[in-house]
Amino acid sequence: MSIRHGLLALLSSGPRYGYQLRVEFEASTGATWPLNIGQVYTTLSRLERDGLVAPGGADEQGRAVYTITEAGREELERWFSTPVAQTDRPRDELAIKIAMAVAGDVDVADVIQTQRAATMRALQELTRAKRAATGGTAQRLVLDSLIFKAEAEQRWLDHCEAVSKEKKTS
To answer: Where is the Transcription regulator PadR N-terminal domain (predicted)?
Structure first.
């Protein structure tokens, strides 16, 4: 998830101060990617350095307000129109762990079972979060995405278990 582009998207609908960006980002994502305020201000600083946002003075309470620039709008438009490639995503640590377990002298079934239990707990937490969600369509779509990924991981773990059993019998 690009915090940088998430903040630009929020600023595209009007000037905001740092804490406000943090709250709106977390509300939009169902609090699945919590941001600390330092991360928000560090990102705003970099966006300002790159000419994508500009300080817009202060609000009535003296908080520094930021505004998206024309270059920021162009960057945001480029981001929305560019698909996310598999190579843009971080490496899949779970796939690496399973591969290393299969290749080494490790109880693969134990590794899979440990992950399956953790994924099931995460799936239950996400399902509860979805039921309790009040953040609108954006929050629902983020939670749906995470639920689908957890369900896919469960299916993939089933597949890993079946394949590793085949390996033992052959």
So the answer is: 7-78
